[in-house]
Amino acid sequence: MRAIASLLALGVLLAGCATPGPGGGVTPGAPLRLYPGDGERRADLVVLGHGFLREQSTLAGLARTLAAAGVDCATLDFTAQRPWDGAHLRNGLAMIRVADRLGARRVVYVGFSAGGLAALVAARNDPRARGVVTLDLVDAAGLGRATAAALSVPLVGLVGEPGRCNAHNGARLVYAQAPRGRLERIAGAGHCDFESPTDPLCEMLCGEADPALGALVRARASAAVLGLLGPETSTSAE
Q1: Phi and psi (nearest 5°) for 33?
Q2: What whole-number distance in Å separates Cα of residue 90 and Cα of residue 78?
Q3: pLDDT in tens, 153-182
Q4: Total structural domains in the chain?
Q5: Which of 77, 82, 95 is nearest to 24 (CA)?
């Protein structure tokens, strides 16, 4: 019975990482959490998207790291996802609505695993976007490649070692399609190292996380975000 449960859980975790389509609905005003920075970057915002069938608490560590660096950061729950449908397009629009709701003028979209697809969609369709950072991105039905090819802002992809939970780094083709794409490999990092915090389910299916590598991921992601936003400004009116 435990083996069956493990196989079902693996299917749930990987479904949004490999094959689901982009459909699905969005619940207006999906729950979000704001991690405020120090106020020096008024109207700058980072919006974080979690992995398939995960939830926003799995990116709280990165959100706190970004807030400590002075940037307002928001997380949200993707309410449209189902085990059979990743709803990546609708999730991207939900990320844009978070930026609307918080009155952002400049935005960097960040997403983990399948949440990276939502971040790509958001950056492609939001003129306020200054770039997108993906954390061990996994593509679905070519959506990432198609979106990256039409992306006018920089794409920074942080990736770990190949494994079943990141489709053996199959998303490398996404970065190759982006006109301003850059790939940064984090040696030794597994899929769960890109969540903060991760949990026993992810570790059971994808391998044990390493706290030191998780800290490195957060530092590199924060540096990428700050690089995309550029120097601090009191108005962020660009």
Answers
A1: -130, 135
A2: 9
A3: 999 999 999 998 888 888 888 999 999 999
A4: 1
A5: 82
